[in-house]
Write a structure and sequence with these properties.
The complex is a heterodimer of chains A (302) and B (233). With 302 residues, chain A is α+β, with helices and mostly antiparallel strands. Chain A has helices at 2-32, 56-78, 227-231, 236-245, 264-276, 283-292; strands spanning 81-82, 87-90, 95-96, 100-103, 106-109, 113-118, 121-126, 138-146, 150-154, 160-164, 188-196, 202-205, 212-214, 218-221, 248-251, 256-260. The chains are: A alpha+beta (302), B alpha+beta (233). Chain A binds chain B through residues 73, 76-77, 79-81, 83-85, 87, 99, 101, 108, 110-114, 126-130, 132, 158-160, 199-200, 225, 278-281, 283, and chain B through 29-30, 47-50, 59-60, 101, 103, 106-110, 138-147, 181-184, 220, 223-224, 227-233.
Chain lengths: 302, 233
């Protein structure tokens, strides 16, 4: 297994290096042209949108990071899908990470997924399954209950999350305030998961500047394992959809997506296309074409 | 050794034709359709999901709720819908056959709901149901130690035979369904109808294990057929 991985890396390393060199060149050219990226406010982790000029080093660092990402992805691409109980590696050198377990000398998969090496840690990235809350995830949830000291939120997972009064901005005196005026049953919020205990008590918070309550727009749900595809590398995919449709879009790690704008239908169609065809090559191009056709095809399932 | 001629012309250690398909239901989190000869089983998995009423929750693990039913049209004589003594028992043994393969502690307080419907019955419905259920659980992305395979073997007129069909079932001296985890090499179910000596039992189980390994290959193929192209770009 190990040798296989190394061989694969060798075969594509040149290609990757070329890619990266080109990227670095492009970045340097942009620097010289005084390029400034004034992007719309993004919701997911994005490297400083207003990159000050003369940060070539930082950019190069980014390019190298990207190369690292590509390398990792090539490892993923080369690995076959594993089934529960499949042996991933027979070695004490590795540690079982996510979705795998050790039994004797070997590490086995717990789930249907794709093997992914993180240094000496082995992860299995699942291909199906429910959303399991993790601390610091940004999720879209629906208020399901208003209590004295907070709200119960449905975050599209097997566990309800709790949003305490201390998790919202400002001081609230519960005995004097009708807290359902802040968030009422059925309200949709974009929140950060602040805490997950081993017994799966989930706390969320609305203190982050990026969190908010949605007033209008529409919600679609996709499989949570497809969320990284919808976002794309450094948000490339989601930014493409935002650009072409002019919609505002927020993607929750839990597979709930909020869309608002004139071309909601088209954006929703594109996201569903990503979910359905997430495995094809050149997905970004495909979605670009779809968005250029402008008119959404009939019969969209929401 | 004189050979016993089976009524459908199979060899003694040959299973009936096996077909398996994963992901047959869009709405379920995981699903599978398994047909072994004339027996057809459909399994659907929902979850892990919130468990209500709350007093049923286990604070440190998930529970598996298993529901085995036979469709009214699954046999020549209509099956009365609703739970029966038999279906309750099979639901229980199916649950116990699958639980050892699951990492239930990974999602405390939740439930995994498993529904098995026998669309057509011709002996071996519980084993077909377990095979389908195991596929459906894997399809749903549930944490599992191993897949579970299941098949029956028995003894007819002094011959060990595998995967009894409806007609053979009536002739047998003994009919022994097992469920088996092929990687762990552990049994999760052994039941038996009839009488058998200790020596015979060993041989029958050995034969059934062989059958389970064949089934395991089919299960792998079925899962990969749906998922192998998914991978990453």
């Amino acid at each position: 297994m190990e040798t296989e991985k190394i061989e694969m890396d060798e075969s594509i390393r040149k290609e990757l290096e070329e890619d990266v060199m080109e990227e670095i060149k492009a970045i340097q050219e942009k620097e010289n042209n005084g390029f400034d990226e004034s992007d719309e406010p993004a919701f997911e982790k994005q490297e400083s949108p207003h990159a000050a000029p003369s940060h070539v080093h930082e950019q190069m660092h980014l390019a190298h990071e990207r190369m690292e990402e590509k390398r990792e992805e090539s490892v993923r691409r080369g690995k076959n899908v594993v089934l529960p109980g499949d042996r991933i590696v027979e070695s004490m050198e590795y540690l079982p990470g996510r979705n795998c377990y050790r039994d004797g000398n070997s590490i086995y998969s717990k789930r249907l997924g794709v093997v992914y090496y993180r240094g000496h840690v082995i992860d299995v990235v699942p291909l199906s399954g429910k959303y399991m809350p993790e601390a610091d995830d940004m999720v879209i949830g629906k208020v399901s209950e208003v209590q004295y000291s907070g709200w119960t939120i449905d975050v599209n997972s097997p566990y309800r999350a709790f949003l305490p009064l201390s998790g919202v901005r400002g001081f609230i005196e519960p005995s004097r305030t009708d807290i359902s005026k802040i968030y009422g049953v059925g309200d949709l919020i974009y929140a950060r998961i602040s805490e997950v205990t081993p017994l799966k008590d989930i706390r969320i918070s609305m203190k982050d500047p990026s969190t908010r309550k949605f007033e209008n727009g529409r919600i679609i749900r996709i499989s949570p394992v497809k969320v990284p595809r919808v976002i794309g590398k450094q948000g490339s995919m989601i930014n493409l959809i935002k650009d072409k449709t002019g919609c505002r879009i927020s993607v929750g790690q839990n597979g709930v997506i909020w869309i608002q704008g004139e071309k909601e239908q088209l954006a929703a169609r594109a996201i569903q296309e990503i979910e359905e065809k997430s495995q094809i090559q050149g997905l970004t191009d495909h979605i670009g074409k779809l968005l250029n056709q402008e008119t959404p095809s009939a019969g969209v399932r929401i | 050794m004189t050979t016993y001629k089976r009524n459908d012309g199979r060899k003694l250690d040959e299973t009936r034709p096996i077909k398996m398909k994963v992901g047959v239901l869009k709405h379920a989190d995981g699903s599978a359709l398994v047909s072994i000869g004339k027996t057809v089983a459909l399994a659907a998995v929902y979850g892990p999901r919130e468990l209500n009423p709350r007093h049923m929750q286990e604070s440190d693990r998930a529970i598996l709720q298993c529901n085995y039913t036979m469709a009214p049209f699954s046999t020549k004589e209509r099956v009365r819908p609703g739970p029966s003594r038999r279906s309750t028992e099979i639901s229980k043994v199916t649950r116990e056959a699958l639980e050892p393969a699951l990492f239930l502690k990974d999602f405390p307080k939740t439930t995994i709901d498993l529904y098995i419907v026998i669309l057509q019955a011709n002996a071996g419905t519980r084993t077909a149901g377990i095979n389908a259920a195991s596929l459906a659980l894997a399809d749903a992305g549930i944490q599992m130690r191993d897949l579970v395979t299941s098949i029956a073997a028995g003894k007819i007129e002094g011959h060990y035979v595998i995967d009894l069909n409806g007609e053979e079932e009536e002739l047998t001296d003994c009919d022994l369904p097992i469920a088996y985890m092929p990687r762990e090499k552990k049994f999760t179910l052994i039941q038996m109808d009839g009488k058998i000596t200790k020596e015979d039992m060993k041989n029958v189980i050995k034969l059934a294990v062989k059958g389970c390994e064949t089934l395991y290959e089919h299960q792998r193929k079925a899962l990969l057929e749906k998922w192998s192209k998914e991978g990453f770009e």
